[in-house]
Amino acid sequence: MVVSDMLAGGGDDGTLGNLTRPSVNPNTLDSHIAAVLLYGDPRHMPKQTYNVGDVTATGKYPRTAAQLTALSKYANRVHDYCDNKDGVCDAAGTNLSAHIAYVTIWNKTAATGLWTCCSTWA
């Protein structure tokens, strides 16, 4: 959540505090970001090109349209992993064990994706 909020902006309608602008300026730092890996992001949004996993619901704290637009600038480098029933990135989920299983389930796949991003970025 921290990394994605830096890229897209944070906050919402009050639950997470006031809306904030992205703290990373894509005009100055964009060329220094090779890849972004998110496991169980509570800001998860369905139907994004960078999603990995089987969740079709929003996270507990879904992004605003403006935040999605900001994050889309990094779409070719973001890998947002969210599994069904994860009690954090799936608002309908209740299984916190799913939330802590990403390292075991996805690390090899994530490493391959990050390697691809980094090798094409350089």
UniProtKB/TrEMBL annotation:
<dbReference type="InterPro" id="IPR000675">
    <property type="entry name" value="Cutinase/axe"/>
</dbReference>
<dbReference type="GO" id="GO:0017000">
    <property type="term" value="P:antibiotic biosynthetic process"/>
</dbReference>
<dbReference type="GO" id="GO:0072330">
    <property type="term" value="P:monocarboxylic acid biosynthetic process"/>
</dbReference>
<dbReference type="GO" id="GO:0052689">
    <property type="term" value="F:carboxylic ester hydrolase activity"/>
</dbReference>
<dbReference type="InterPro" id="IPR029058">
    <property type="entry name" value="AB_hydrolase_fold"/>
</dbReference>
<protein>
    <submittedName>
        <fullName>Alpha/beta-hydrolase</fullName>
    </submittedName>
</protein>
<keyword id="KW-0378">Hydrolase</keyword>
<dbReference type="Pfam" id="PF01083">
    <property type="entry name" value="Cutinase"/>
</dbReference>
<keyword id="KW-1015">Disulfide bond</keyword>
